[in-house]
Design a protein that fits this description.
Elements (H helix, E strand, L loop, with lengths): L11 E2 L2 E7 L14 E7 L3 E2 L4 E9 L7 E6 L3 E2 L3 E2 L3 E7 L10 E7 L5 E7 L1 E2 L16 E5 L1 E3 L5 E3 L17 E10 L4 E8 H7 L2 E2 L10 E2 L9 H6 L24 E4 L2 E4 L13 E7 L8 E7 L41 E4 L56 E7 L5 E8 L14 E4 L5 E5 L3 E5 L17 E8 L14 E2 L6 E2 L1 E3 L1 H7 L13 E4 L10 E5 L6 E6 L13 E8 L1 E6 L9 E13 L9 E7 L3 E4 L2 E4 L6 E3 L5 E7 L9 E7 L9 E13 L3
Parallel strand pairs: 1-3, 4-12, 23-28, 30-33
Antiparallel strand pairs: 2-11, 3-5, 5-9, 6-10, 7-9, 8-9, 10-11, 13-38, 14-15, 15-46, 16-25, 16-37, 17-24, 17-26, 18-19, 20-21, 22-23, 26-29, 27-28, 30-34, 31-32, 35-36, 36-37, 38-45, 39-44, 39-46, 40-43, 40-45, 41-42
C-alpha cells in the first residue's frame, strides 16, 4: 500500500492500492462535509502479461449518506464496461500488448453528492516473456483452417488418410486429395489416350440433369434439342446441324470439313469429322446389321454414319480429325485452348499409352508419335513434355523418356469433387457380334434397339458406364469376372475357366487371371509402392441401361489409397479381359492447419519476436518425403470497424525445424503486425502407412511499441 489520506484503511487483495482524497470544488462555509471512504479495493491479479485479464472492484461509503457515483480510467490497456451499484463498482481490465509510457495504472474515482471525491490507484507489474504459451490445447475452435487432419481423443492432430473404396460409377473422395496416375501396362492393337473431366464442369455446361439431388447416381444426360441423342455425345462428335432449331455451337475453332448433313429417321444431323476420311467424302448409309441387344442378334436395317481405316489403309495425317489441340481427341475432351475455341472440358494425362517393341500407332492415328521400342512399363513418348492437362510445356522439366514419365500428378482435388475418367482409342471400327464387337450407338429406340450407329476409328469410353455409346451384346451379370492375383493367359476360357486359371482364395471357384505375370511382378516394385494382388475375385457390373462398361476398378489390398484401373478397349467388350491398358490411381494425403489469431489487436504495438516449440511424430514406414513444416505470421487478421477477419495472404515466416521435438525463436519485427498465428503442412510421402501427427505446439511472443 502506498498512501493513506484518511483514517479508515483501504483493503487490497493481490495488488498495490493508493487512496487519495480530493476536495470539493465548491464547499459550504456553514458545514463541514467528509469525502467518501473506500472500504475495500481488490484486483484479481497485479502481475500481468500481455492480454491478461484483471478484475477490479471498489467498495465505498459516504459519511453523510449521500449517493455515490463511480468512474474509471486507465493509462493503458483495455477497459471493459463498469458495473456499479449504490456502494460498489467493478471493472474488467485487459493488459496491453506492450508498454509505451511507464507501468500500467488504473484509477477509480468515487464521488459523493457534495462533490467530494476519493481516488484509488491500482498498480500493476507488467512483464513480457517468450515462455508464456499462447496456444491452447487443440480443439476445432482454435483453428481457422483444418484440412485432411483429424483431432485425436488424446490430443494430437493426425493426418486423415482416406482408405475407403472407389467405384467406377462415382469417383470422388470425402476429403481433399493430391492425386496421381501411374501407367502400368498396355497390350492391345489400339492406341489410347487417358484423361478425365470434372463432373461439375459437365453439369455447369448443361450436359447433365442432376434431378435436384446431391448424389449423381440418379443423374441423366440431357437432350436439350430433342433429337434423341444426348448433348454430351452430340458435342463429342459435333453431330448437330449447322443451322435450324436443333443446331448447337460447334466445339472447336474451325471445321476441317464443310458441314455435310444427313437425315436419319427424319432428324437432320452433321456427319462427324472424326468419322470422315481426308477428303471428307460422304459416309452415311442405311445397311443391314445384326441387332446388338442381348439375345436379339437378328439382322435389321439401320442407319450408319462414318467410315474407318483398316490395318492396310494408307495413313493420312488429315483424316479422321476434328483439328483442335490434338486432332484425334474429341475437342470437347481437350483442355480449354484457342485450338478448340476454349470449349474443351477435359484434362489429358497420357496422350499415348503404347508400351511395345514397335515405333508405330494404329494407322498412325496416335495422338503423339511412338518414339521408343521398349516394353518397360513406361509410355513410348516423352510424357513430361506436356502438363497434366495435355498442353505442351514451355520448358520440359525432364527431357527424354525416363522413369519419371511413368507418373502424372493431377494436383490437389477438393473434397467431394467427382471425376469421370475417359479412354480415347484409335482403332479400326467393326460390327461383328461373333467377336463381341459393335459399332457405337448414337441413338436408341424406346425398346433399346439402335437406330443410328457410328463408324469411326476414334472412340470414347467413360468410367460411367451409362455414358458409353456401345451396347453390351451379351447382357450377363457380372459383365466380366477375373482373379486379380492370377497371371493372365490367353488360353483361359472365361466361360469355362478350368484350364490355365487359378482358384479364388477360400473358395472352390476358379477364374481366369487378369494381369500378365510381368505386370504382377512390376506392380511389386517400389515405383508402384509394392502392390501385391491376392487371389481374389473382381467383377464388372452391368450399366443398367444396356451400355457396355469399360473400366474394372480395383483397390490395392496391400497398399490402401491406391486403385488399379483396367480398361477394355473394344466396343461391345471384345474378349472382356479389362487389361488392354492399365493405370494406377493414387491418392496422396496432404494436411493443413492454420491457427486462429493468438494475440490481441493493438495498433500501438507490433510483435517483435516469436518463440515456437512443437512436437510431432511421423509414424511407421515414413520416407524422406514425409514430414511436417511450420510457419508463423503476424499479419494474420484484417481488422477494421471493430471486427477482424482472417487474412488470406499473410506474410509467412518459415521455420526450419527437424522432426520430433524442436523449437526456435524468430525475429519478426521486419513485418510489423499484431495478429499472430501459425500454420503447418503435413505430407504423407510415398508410404501409405505413414500418418504424421502434430502432438503439441507452444507459441510465445513479445511486442514493442510502434515507432511514431
Amino acid at each position: 500500500m502506498h498512501l493513506k489520506r484518511f483514517p479508515l484503511p483501504a483493503l487490497l487483495a493481490g495488488g498495490a492500492l493508493s487512496v487519495i482524497v480530493l476536495p470539493a470544488h465548491a464547499a459550504s462555509t456553514q458545514a463541514v462535509y467528509l469525502a467518501p471512504q473506500v472500504t475495500q479495493a481488490t484486483q484479481s491479479r497485479a502481475a500481468v502479461h500481455p492480454g491478461d485479464l484483471s478484475q477490479l472492484q471498489l467498495q465505498a461509503t459516504d459519511p453523510q449518506g449521500s449517493p455515490l457515483t463511480f468512474s474509471w480510467s486507465a493509462t493503458t490497456g483495455t477497459s471493459g464496461t463498469p458495473v456499479s451499484d449504490a456502494s460498489s463498482s467493478s471493472l474488467d481490465w485487459t493488459a496491453p500488448q506492450c508498454l509505451v509510457d511507464g507501468p500500467p495504472q488504473v484509477r477509480a474515482t468515487v464521488t459523493n453528492g457534495y462533490g467530494l471525491s476519493t481516488e484509488a490507484l491500482f498498480d500493476f507489474d507488467f512483464t513480457q516473456s517468450l515462455d508464456v504459451d499462447r496456444q491452447p490445447d487443440f480443439t476445432p475452435s482454435d483453428f481457422d483452417e483444418v484440412s485432411n487432419m483429424v483431432f485425436q481423443p488424446e490430443g494430437p492432430l493426425r493426418l486423415n488418410v482416406y482408405q475407403g473404396a472407389l467405384y467406377s460409377e462415382r469417383i470422388l473422395f470425402p476429403n481433399e486429395q493430391r492425386l496421381s496416375v501411374a501407367f502400368v501396362h498396355e497390350s492391345a492393337g489400339a492406341s489410347h489416350a487417358l484423361g478425365y473431366v470434372f463432373y461439375d464442369d459437365l453439369v455447369a455446361r448443361g450436359y447433365v440433369n442432376t434431378q435436384g439431388t446431391p448424389n449423381s447416381s440418379d443423374d441423366t444426360l440431357v437432350d436439350a434439342n430433342g433429337n434423341g441423342i444426348a448433348d454430351l455425345h452430340e458435342d463429342l462428335y459435333n453431330l448437330a446441324p449447322p443451322s435450324g432449331a436443333q443446331a448447337r455451337p460447334y466445339i472447336g475453332a474451325a471445321r476441317r470439313c464443310a458441314p455435310r448433313t444427313f437425315i436419319s429417321q427424319g432428324v437432320t444431323l452433321t456427319q462427324p469429322e472424326l468419322a470422315l476420311n481426308a477428303t471428307c467424302a460422304s459416309a452415311f448409309v442405311r445397311q443391314t446389321l445384326m441387332d446388338a441387344r442381348p439375345g436379339m442378334h437378328d439382322p435389321y436395317a439401320v442407319d450408319v454414319v462414318g467410315t474407318t481405316p483398316t490395318e492396310t489403309t494408307t495413313p493420312n495425317a488429315s483424316a479422321w480429325s476434328d483439328l483442335g489441340l490434338h486432332p484425334r481427341v474429341p475437342n470437347l475432351l481437350e483442355p480449354a485452348h484457342a485450338a478448340n475455341n476454349q470449349r474443351g472440358l477435359g484434362h489429358l494425362l497420357f496422350l499415348l499409352a503404347d508400351d511395345d517393341d514397335e515405333l508405330t500407332t494404329f494407322n498412325q492415328l496416335g495422338v503423339v508419335p511412338d518414339i521408343q521400342p521398349l516394353e518397360d512399363g513406361i509410355p513410348d513418348y516423352d510424357v513430361s513434355r506436356y502438363d497434366a492437362n495435355g498442353i505442351l510445356r514451355a520448358v520440359n522439366p525432364d527431357p527424354g523418356i525416363t522413369p519419371n514419365d511413368r507418373i502424372v500428378d493431377l494436383g490437389v482435388v477438393p473434397a467431394g469433387k467427382e471425376l469421370v475418367f475417359f479412354l480415347v482409342t484409335q482403332y479400326e471400327s467393326r460390327h461383328d457380334l461373333d467377336q463381341d464387337w459393335v459399332y457405337p450407338c448414337l441413338r436408341k429406340a424406346s425398346n433399346g434397339q439402335c437406330t443410328l450407329h457410328l463408324k469411326s476409328p476414334i472412340q470414347v469410353f467413360f468410367s460411367k458406364a451409362k455414358w458409353n455409346l456401345d451396347q453390351d451384346p451379351r447382357g450377363r451379370v457380372p459383365v466380366a469376372q477375373r482373379n486379380i492375383g492370377c497371371a493372365y493367359s490367353d488360353l483361359c476360357n472365361p466361360d469355362l475357366p478350368q484350364m490355365d486359371s487359378c482358384p479364388v482364395l477360400n473358395s472352390t471357384q476358379r477364374l481366369c487371371g487378369w494381369l500378365s505375370a510381368d505386370t504382377l511382378t512390376r506392380l511389386q516394385q517400389p515405383a508402384y509402392h509394392n502392390v501385391v494382388l491376392p487371389m481374389v475375385s473382381a467383377g464388372v457390373l452391368p450399366s443398367g441401361n444396356g451400355n457396355m462398361p469399360h473400366l474394372l476398378m480395383q483397390p490395392s489390398p496391400s497398399t490402401p489409397g491406391q486403385w488399379l484401373m483396367g480398361f477394355e478397349d473394344m466396343p461391345g467388350g471384345g474378349d472382356r479381359d479389362f487389361n488392354d491398358v492399365v493405370f494406377l490411381l493414387r491418392g496422396t494425403q496432404e494436411g493443413r492447419v492454420r491457427s486462429r489469431v493468438l494475440s490481441q489487436d493493438d495498433a500501438s504495438c507490433r510483435i517483435a519476436q516469436v518463440s515456437f516449440t512443437k512436437r510431432d511424430v511421423l509414424g511407421t514406414g515414413c520416407d524422406a518425403t514425409a514430414g511436417v513444416t511450420y510457419a508463423v505470421a503476424t499479419d494474420c487478421g484484417l481488422c477494421g470497424a471493430g471486427t477482424c477477419v482472417p487474412n488470406p495472404t499473410p506474410t509467412w515466416h518459415p521455420l526450419s525445424l527437424p522432426p520430433g521435438a524442436a523449437g526456435t525463436t524468430v525475429d519478426v519485427s521486419g513485418t510489423p503486425g499484431q495478429q499472430l498465428c501459425w500454420k503447418a503442412q503435413v505430407a504423407q510421402g510415398a508410404s501409405f502407412g505413414c500418418l504424421p501427427a502434430i502432438v503439441t505446439v507452444d507459441v510465445g511472443y513479445v511486442s514493442e511499441p510502434v515507432a511514431p
